[in-house]
Amino acid sequence: MFPIPVSVLTGFLGSGKTTLLNRLIKEPQLADTAVIVNEFGEVSIDHALVERATDGIIELAGGCLCCTVRGELVDTLSDLVERLRDGRIAAMKRIVIETTGLADPAPVLHALMAHPMLVRTLRLDGVVTTVDAVHGARTLDVHPEAVKQVAVADRLVLTKTDLADPAGVADLRAALHSLNPNAKIREASRADDLVSLLACGLYDPETKSVDVQRWLGRAAHDDVHDDHHHHDHGDHHHHHDTSIRTFSLTHPGPIPSAAVEMFVDLLQASYGERLLRMKGIIELSEDPAHPLVLHGVQTILHPPARLPKWPEGTRGTRMILITKDVPEDYVRKLFAALTSRPAVDTPDRAAMTDNPLAIAGLKI
Ligand SMILES: Nc1nc2c(ncn2[C@@H]2O[C@H](COP(=O)(O)OP(=O)(O)OP(=O)(O)O)[C@@H](O)[C@H]2O)c(=O)[nH]1
């Protein structure tokens, strides 16, 4: 039964991790796979979006997998191993951990390679990193986490090549190759043999760049000093990058599609690529029985999808926004106005619809 191979699935915000995971777990050969997804934000959306009828999906709540819930990841894995040992759960062939898009993968890998109990029972079997072909190059320039995710990978999966300009894709491939010459690059649209994507062999930091070895070393250092100086390691940019914020918006009742459209249009027009990620499950007035799933990734709004029914009988609208330099207060007021829940000093939807940009007291 042991050691159980563990795959880490990482990649920047909205780069297609869950989409790939959904394809993977449908493969019959991967039927006995436990999936651990890292939930971000206060409301649960990711769980609803991983398409699996049975359980076997474990959610880690709150924040970034690499820092705040690293302890929780270790606890979850230890607990899983315990339950396997005494037969409380059926044997599994593999564990897949999907990190959040902003996660620095180094501490997660370090935990898997250095934790005394986990190294005996689990075997890190590779890191798969998704890279969005539309935004990838720019994201690598702006977000150091994205560079690390690429650098630690065994396999790089290019997503959204169907939406990208081919010359840009060629440049991106070259950039990826120079960041991580040993990783195989595949296109999600062509990845027919999905199972082989996961089986990478024992994870070997030696084949990675010198930077990766330094990052992993740094993660070890973090462990030793965990209690004392949590936040003073320069590599943890997202802790210090206070301009990046995650917040959620909820509304208990249905929302007209025109209001949803206006909300998303205004946000995208105003903030563009600063709207790093938007993810929502929406109860539409026009069709409340079928949840609408919205995915925004920087400047792109993907075609909305419908779920056949509400997960766990929950209705209403939940949205998660991950933003850079976007005033949360403005977004909240806009959402309140469009959902006809006027906050103090905020006009209602009718007033907004007439002249949405002229909201008293609101500046973009
Ligand atoms: N056209 C196209 N869309 C894709 C592709 N891969 C993913 N998407 C879309 O991109 C959006 C985001 O995909 P997800 O799989 O949720 O991305 P993620 O990396 O899990 O996102 P996070 O929740 O931020 O971690 C969804 O609307 C997907 O349908 C692709 O290869 N082509």
Please outline what is shown here:
By secondary structure, this protein is α/β, with parallel strands linked by helices. 35% of the residues lie in helices and 21% in strands.
Question: How would you explain this protein's 3D organization?
Answer:
Residues 224-235 have a biased composition (Basic and acidic residues). It catalyses: GTP + H2O = GDP + phosphate + H(+). Keywords: ATP-binding, Chaperone, Hydrolase, Nucleotide-binding. Residues 224-245 are annotated as: Disordered. Belongs to the SIMIBI class G3E GTPase family. ZNG1 subfamily. The chain is α/β, with parallel strands linked by helices and 364 residues long. The protein has 2 domains: 4-238, P-loop containing nucleotide triphosphate hydrolases (Rossmann fold); 243-354, Hypothetical Protein Yjia, Chain: A,domain 2 (2-Layer Sandwich), CATH 3.30.1220. The protein is 35% helix and 21% strand. The chain is built from 14 helices and 13 strands. The protein has helices spanning 17-24, 46-49, 70-85, 105-114, 116-121, 136-142, 144-151, 166-179, 194-198, 210-224, 237-240, 257-271, 328-338, 349-354, and strands spanning 4-11, 33-38, 57-60, 94-98, 122-132, 155-159, 184-187, 244-251, 277-282, 292-297, 300-301, 305-306, 317-324. The protein has a 7-stranded parallel sheet, sandwiched between helices. Strands 8, 9, 10, 11, 12 and 13 form a 6-stranded antiparallel sheet that branches. Helix 2 links the parallel strand 2 and strand 3. Residues 11, 13-19, 100-101, 130, 159-160, 162-163, 188-189, 277, 279, 295, 297, 302 line the site of guanosine-5'-triphosphate (GTP). Guanosine-5'-triphosphate binds at residues 11, 13-19, 100-101, 130, 159-160, 162-163, 188-189, 277, 279, 295, 297, 302.
